[in-house]
Amino acid sequence: MKRLYLEKVKRLEKLSKEKQEDLGFDLVNAMVTANSLADAALFVQDLLTRNEVKILSKRLRIAKLLLSGMTYEEIEKDLHVSHGTVAKIAAWLTQRGDGFRNIIKKLPNQKT
């Protein structure tokens, strides 16, 4: 398994910094061009595996709960995640969490 991971990392590193930025630019622009929740949901469904959606969704929810004042232990129990996962998201929020904060404050309280 580690060998496969290292091979994938090496392949990505073969791309120039400019090409990597160009790929990221396309991804971010694709995300913001979704004109509706339905368009966004279809895009996410086509782009990511179910497991990737679950992982990213949990990360976002962990950030949301941390910002709301919930404790690590409460989050771990509620979302069935490890202490390390919560700590990683907490560290991201401390070091550079503007992206999380900006999006989370725009999220509706409930799904509609």
Which percent range describes the beta-strand content?
A: under 5%
Order of helical and strand elements: HHHHHHH
Q: Which range best describes the helical content: under 10%, 10-25%, 25-40%, 40-55%, 55-70% or over 70%?
A: over 70%
Unreliable stretches covering 5 or more consecutive residues:
none
User: Total strand count, please?
Assistant: 0
Mean pLDDT: 89
The largest sheet, given as strand count, sense and whether it forms a barrel, is: none
* Number of helical elements: 7
Coarse shape: globular
C-alpha end-to-end distance = 41 Å
What is the gyration radius calculated from CA atoms? 16 Å
Q: Which structural class is indicated by helix and strand composition?
A: mainly alpha
Provide a descriptive summary of the structure in words.
The protein is mainly α and 112 residues long. It has 7 helices and no strands. The chain has helices at residues 2-13, 17-32, 37-47, 50-67, 72-79, 83-96, 98-104. Helix 4 crosses helix 6. The radius of gyration is 16 Å and the shape is globular. The termini are far apart.
What key attributes describe this structure?
single chain; 7 helices; globular
